Structure formats: C-alpha cells, structure tokens
Amino acid sequence: MPPRPRQPLADFDLKRELPKHQQVRETLRRHISTMQTGDRLSSDRQMAELFKVDRMIVRRAMLELEAEGFVVRHQGHGTFVKKTTRLGAAADTSKIIGLVVPDVEIPVFARMLKGIDDEARERGFSVLVSNCNRDNQRERGILEQLAGLQLAGIMVFPFHDDSLDPTYHQLLGGLFQRGLPLVLLDQYLPGLDIPSVVTDKVQVGYRAAEHLIMLGHQRICYLTTGHYDVTGQNCLKGHRMALKDYGRNYDPGLTVEIPVRNCAGPAHDAVKRLLTATPNAFTAIATDQFSMTYGILKALDELGMNIPDNMAVIGHDAYQNPQLAHITYTLDPVEELGRAAVRLLLEGAGKESLQRHVLLAPKLVVGTSCGAPRVTGASVRQENPYQERRPDKDKTASETSPFPTVASG
After folding, report:
1. Of 3.40.50.2300, 3.30.420.40, 3.40.30.10, 3.30.379.10, which CATH number belongs to 201-333+362-400?
2. pLDDT per position as a tens digit, 277-292
3. What is the pLDDT of residues 95-144, one digit of tens each?
4. Does 200 score more than 80 pLDDT?
5. What is the residue-wise DSSP string for 213-270?
6. 2 cis-preceded (ω within 30 degrees of 0)
7. So what's the pLDDT on residue 28?
8. How far apart are CA 199 and CA 360, in angstroms?
9. What are the tens digits of pLDDT across the range 41-78?
10. Strand (E) or helix (H) holding 119
11. Using H for helix, E for strand and C for coil, what is the string for 318-351?
C-alpha cells in the first residue's frame, strides 16, 4: 500500500472554540494521521513558534498525545510517532474522572464532591470516587491503580501530612510526567508543577486575626498545624502578617502547632495548659482546623470560661453544624473549589491563559463567639455561607457596631 500523502503541519488551522492546548493536540493528532510509525515530529520549540503559543502549551498537548499512545518521547533524541489514526477519527477519550479523597465520611469532602459531581455531569462526565479511609498507603495504591485506567484525568486531595513528604512528591510527579492529567485539591505542593485549586490559606489566618484585632484584642492565641504541613505554614503566615499590619507584636508562646491527625485532644490540652498557667495570657483564640475548634471549646467549658465574655473564639469550617451555630469561623469555599477543579482538569485555567492554578478566597462567617453581633439571621447564614453579610436595617447603630467592648477575661 502506497504511503498516505503527508499534509504540511502549517496547513492545519486551530479550532477557536477549544482551549489552546486542546487546539494544538487535535491539530497534531490530525497531522500524525498523515505520518508513518517511527516518523519524527518537530521539536516543541519549533511547534510553539509555528502555532504562536507558549512552549508549555505544546508540552501539555504532547504529554496528552503520549498518554493516549500516539507518540513516544525520547529525551535528547526527540518525539516520534508510535501509532497513527485515520484522518478525522475521534480519539478514545474517557468520560470518567477519578477522584481520590482521604475519607468520604468527613463533611467537607461530601460538600466538595457535590461541586465536582455537578460540574462533571454538566459537561457529560461521571466521577469515580476512591476512598482512602485515612490510610496514606492505601492512597498510594489507589493512585497507581487509577493511573492504569483510561480516565479523563484524576483529582487528588492529598493528606495534609503528605504535603512535605518527598516520597509522595516523587509518586505524584512521576504520574504527572507520564502524561496523566492531574489536579490537586486544596493543596499546592512546592516543587511540583501539578495544577492545583486551593483556598488562599494565608487569607484564612489573616482574616481571623484581623477580625479579632478590629474587635480590640491585643493578645491572640493561634492553634494551627504550622510547620507540620503546607496548609498550616500558610495559615500561620497570614496570622503573623495581620498582627504586623495592625501593629501587634507576635508572641511565639501564643502559637501552638499540632499535627493534623486527631488534633482535637492536643488542642484541648494545650488551651487548658496555657490558661491554667496564666489565666489572662490571652483574650482571644483562633484556629484553622475544624477538629481543633472542638478541642478549644471543650477546654474553655471545663475551665468555666464563658464565650465571648471571658474568651473570644474563631473556629474553622463549622458550616451547618448545629453544635457550633454560634461560632464565628473561617470557611473554605469547597463546593466552588470542586467545580473549579473539574474546569481546570478538562480545559485549563482559560483559553488564552498560561495560568496553571486557581486560588479561591475564604469567607469569614460572623457568629456571636467574638462579642460582635451576628451580621445576619442564622437561617440566612446556613442557607448561603458565601453570601455577603449586611447588618439588620431595623437595628440601631450601636447594636450593629462591629466594635463592642471586649472583656479582658
């Protein structure tokens, strides 16, 4: 059979309705259909110049073609055709997205899954959920297993204590380098070039401290995972930034860093220890962890301290929790985070953008645990936690003032 005539690469037009890397990928797939197995493709640099796009866009397109089995890349030698397809034939693209989470029973993951599933279904995809049961080694096995399936991509919510683990970085980096489409959920791992959708953790720490400072507090205790993981490092950075911006001194003795696993008990013990040793050591306490919120409240109750008269408290992610309905807390927009992750996995950050990550702002939901009046009624607050809060128009200015007198403890 005579060889098929090869159509010059420059003759192919990009499809304007697709994201750039998909335009390049589809154009290259059509070009490969005119080639023979073993033929060498132009370099990434040459193709970037031809398509007038950044080399990273070409690289991403080539990695996807490699994952589909159309090309093979040999470092130092170039990229070669591995298999061809008929001109115009559609690629075997899976309509399933893999999702790996630490524990599906944790409410935050259920809310995130809702966003992921809604966005995926709207785009004609389904979601395959893998539960790690809080087992790091189980997660590693699941990732290797999913990598062998024909999936549209995989979204991973890494364990917090894996965020600084070089072995875990090597595993994810290896999967990504093999061309597997990956998106990390609410974790940005330094040293890895893997797309991530993350709540701005610096703002989580900053917003809590800022609110307490604006209520008049001078000495604020902060409970965080701190140096134990990337999330804690960034939250603590935000806490310290707020103190500096508002002219407050940072006291390392008022920062308690606790590993994330089973952190409610250590948080309880730390608060009791600090306040037993020095009853007036601080007038406010904040945390960036949901479990630590419970530990803090239990300790204050055992010490006979009233909230907010004796102590102001800001927790984290107490959304739709009846026991914590009165608590002021920082809130990660996890449902939107899930939706954004699907969009990033399937189409990138934008058609014309080189942006590889998405950063979402947290919210501060104002309850009554800091001495400030609640900004809206509880029913509105529960129905839409991301809605901007406004004072009740029927109340007087003194009742809605965000600057009440704060008890010194």
Report:
1. 3.40.50.2300
2. 999 999 999 999 999 9
3. 899 999 998 888 888 899 999 999 999 999 999 999 998 888 899 899 98
4. yes
5. HHTT-S-EEEEE-GGGSHHHHHHHHHHHHHHHHTTPPP-GGGEEE--STT-HHHHHHH
6. no
7. 85
8. 5
9. 899 888 888 888 888 888 888 887 887 778 888 777 78
10. helix 107-122
11. CCCCHHHCCCEEEECCHHHHHHHHHHHHHHCCCC
Q: Which position has the higher pLDDT, 384 or 272?
A: 272
Q: Is 207 helix (H, G, I), strand (E, B) or coil?
A: helix
Rounded Cα–Cα distance for residues 310 and 399 (Å): 20
Q: Which residues of 294-307 are buried (b: 16+ CB within 10 A; e: fewer)?
A: bbbbbbbeeeebeb
Alpha-carbon dihedral 78, 81, 82, 87, rounded to 10 degrees: 160
Do 139 and 159 touch, CB atoms closer than 8 A? yes
Q: What is the pTM of this model?
A: 0.68
9-81: CATH number = 1.10.10.10
Q: What is the mean pLDDT of residues 142-169?
A: 87
pLDDT band of residue 372 (cuts 50, 70, 90) is low
Q: Which of 115, 213, 206, 212 is nearest to 155 (CA)?
A: 115
| Superfamily of 96-199 according to CATH | Response regulator (3.40.50.2300)
| Residue 398, pLDDT score | 35
End-to-end CA distance of the chain: 90
Same fold, 96-199 and 201-333+362-400: yes
Judging by DSSP bridges, how do beta strands 196-199 and 358-360 pair with one another? parallel
Question: What is each CA distance from 183 to 19, 66, 89, 158, 222, in whole angstroms?
Answer: 17, 18, 28, 11, 31
Residue extents of the structural domains in the chain: 9-81, 96-199, 201-333+362-400
Q: How confident is the model at residue 209 (pLDDT cuts 50, 70, 90)?
A: very high
Q: Which residues, in sequence order, are bridge partners of residue 78?
A: 74
